[in-house]
Amino acid sequence: MSDTARGTGQPGARLSFLARPHWVNALLLRLAARPYLRLEGSEHALAWGRTSVFPLEPGQHTLEAFWRYRGTRAPLGAGTLQVRVQQGDEVLVEARNGPLNHQPLQLRRRPAP
């Protein structure tokens, strides 16, 4: 994946996104549900515990993460986070649910290494 913004030759920003289930219900969610990220109006299927990387344009972005039980279309446990990025930024975000299934994903920006 290129981190060059739309052919400008300038390095764009990157989002590294990790969805992790809480240990209390991790087995259920890993077997029966899949996490998703809605970014710029598009849904991206994720995998629990794996980091996915997405290019971002500089500016303000709304991240919405949720999960779906397999075979369903309803988004569950939705959580959102607003992030502002500048050219060349790498943004690390982790989404984690609470111990109860009705608790939404909490999205947190993590410091870059």
Features:
mainly beta; elongated; 4-stranded mixed beta sheet; single chain; disordered N terminus; 4-stranded antiparallel beta sheet; 113 residues; 8 strands; 6% helix
Euclidean distance between termini CA atoms? 20 Å
Largest sheet: 4 strands, mixed
Rg, alpha carbons: 15 Å
Query: Unreliable segments (pLDDT under 50, ≥5 consecutive)?
Result: 1-9
SS content category: mainly beta
**Shape verdict:** elongated
Strand order of the largest sheet: 4-1-7-8
Strand residues, percent: over 45%
User: Could you state the order of secondary-structure elements as H and E?
Assistant: EHEEEEEEE
Number of helices: 1
Question: Using DSSP, what is the number of strands?
Answer: 8
What is the percent of helical residues? under 10%
Rounded average pLDDT: 88
